[in-house]
Amino acid sequence: METKIHRNKELSVVEALIPILFLVLLLGYNVYVFGDNALSGSNQFILLIGGAIAAIVGFFNKVTFHKMMEEVANNIKSTVGAILILLMVGALAGTWLVSGIIPTMIYYGLQILSPAIFLPATLIICSIISIATGSSWTTSATVGIALIGVGGALGFDLAIVAGAVISGAYFGDKLSPMSDTTNLAPAMAGTDLFTHIRYMVLTTVPTYILTLIIFIILGVNTESKGNINIGSLLLDIQNTFTVSAWLFLVPLVVIGLIIKKTEPLIALLVGTLLAAVFALIFQPHIINQIAGVQTMTFESGYKGVMNAITGEIVIPTPNKTLTDLFTSGGMQKMLGTIWLIICAMVFGGIMDAIGALARISQSLLKMAHTTFGLFASTVGSCLAINITASDQYLSIVIPGKMFAKAYEKKGLAPENLSRTLEDAGTVTSVLIPWNTCGAYQSSTLGVATLDYLPYAVFNILSPITTLIFAALNIKIRALIATKSVTE
């Protein structure tokens, strides 16, 4: 809410779009050349090139280098929490593997979730967890990782599974009163939290039902691939890990802490440390294997746990599918994502400093001659800022501040704006590879953003639904009607 919007009267719309045009062209060619390896470093450098082009535009429009670097520093500072969470998610993934938590989840999941119901069940499970925790990030880092493992063992394309996880995770992130974006959107628009949630349900529930139907169809059609010997997989898991229901205590503690509004970073740290203790108790043979020793000692236990937390580990099994699943990169795996986020913040910071973000939003606002045009401009602004600023919160804050008066002048209640900010800003951030949300989910779930994008059904349909409602004038609340009710 304290974010400043930098305006620059001397900057034209064409100049504001120049860095974006170059960025899109360069990223497109870079992905063409490097393919999936583009995120290994070349995309990061392209973002810096995009920032340099934006800086050149800024110099021609009397923006100082100091001002641009100051905004870059502010942007990077705002991502410190996300970076620390990323590192902790890497640590948690490592300890949850060596402790047997993830294998145990997969073991029971294989027995409960048949291929026919797996995808809709994944959507529903992630929806429930995200509603309870208010966090799509925590949902993906806990049950999301386990469901990816179950889906892989059942023979599903992991991109489809990731799409179901993300669809469910962002459903809860969007509706839960404990979600930061759910609180931020009404604050920006000028309405209260529960009015915002009630009004948002009108577009969210139909979108969710359609999403559920699509995943039911995908699940039924994928059943023909269920030629995997589940009994053999279960036996291999049992022979590799000590499977115990007691291991579920750790994820339950983490989810409980989040529900109790404990800071996610603290909850993830507790989950990592508890899992490390459980690893020493339940899986000493795995720890010995990682440490390269035969007998457990304090030193070997420490070494095995620290290797799991910080570096790449592979737990070999008789089954190649399980061996591929039982790998973890620890904190080290997250460094590429952190690199990407920092470079994206450089580009976004310079774009903000030169006034490009404000100019783009203003231009979209000028196109809003009708009610539908106003909603469409809001959606377009949220998408543009998710792409350029690479930050979910800015995609809510900047359009929220820029469009609030326009909705009032049109005689529209502020909850129209807050709902649109969530429908277009919150859920689409995860579809951008260099956005903090897209980079996080890709690293956590181990699936490239562009791979899971076509299957993130809820996230794709949400802005479309809000535009359909606006075009057909369905549940568009007038400002006067709102005032008469409250008076």
Write up what this structure looks like:
This protein is mostly helical. The chain is built from 26 helices and two strands. The protein has helices at residues 13-34, 42-60, 65-78, 80-98, 101-112, 115-133, 136-153, 158-175, 180-189, 193-222, 230-240, 249-259, 264-282, 284-291, 298-310, 320-325, 330-333, 335-353, 356-366, 371-388, 392-409, 414-426, 436-445, 449-452, 457-471, 479-486, and strands spanning 313-314, 327-328. A two-stranded antiparallel sheet has the order 1-2. The longest helix is centred in the middle third of the chain and has 30 residues, at 193-222. The two termini are 28 Å apart. The model is unreliable at 481-487 (pLDDT under 50).
The backbone outline, from C-alpha atoms, is: globular
Radius of gyration: 23 Å
Instruction: Characterize the largest beta sheet: strand count, sense, and whether it forms a barrel.
Output: 2 strands, antiparallel
Helical fraction equals: over 70%
Q: Can you give the mean pLDDT?
A: 87
Task: Work out the number of β strands.
Answer: 2
Structural class based on helices, strands and sheet pairing: mainly alpha
The low-pLDDT segments are 481-487
Which labels suit this protein?
globular, single chain, 487 residues, 26 helices, two-stranded antiparallel sheet
What is the fold's blueprint, element by element?
Elements lengths: L12 H22 L7 H19 L4 H14 L1 H19 L2 H12 L2 H19 L2 H18 L4 H18 L4 H10 L3 H30 L7 H11 L8 H11 L4 H19 L1 H8 L6 H13 L2 E2 L5 H6 L1 E2 L1 H4 L1 H19 L2 H11 L4 H18 L3 H18 L4 H13 L9 H10 L3 H4 L4 H15 L7 H8 L1
Antiparallel strand pairs: 1-2
Helix pairs in contact: 1-2, 1-19, 2-18, 3-18, 4-13, 4-15, 5-7, 5-11, 6-7, 6-8, 6-10, 7-8, 7-23, 8-10, 9-21, 9-22, 10-22, 10-25, 12-13, 14-15, 18-23, 19-20, 19-21, 20-21, 20-22, 20-25, 21-22, 22-25
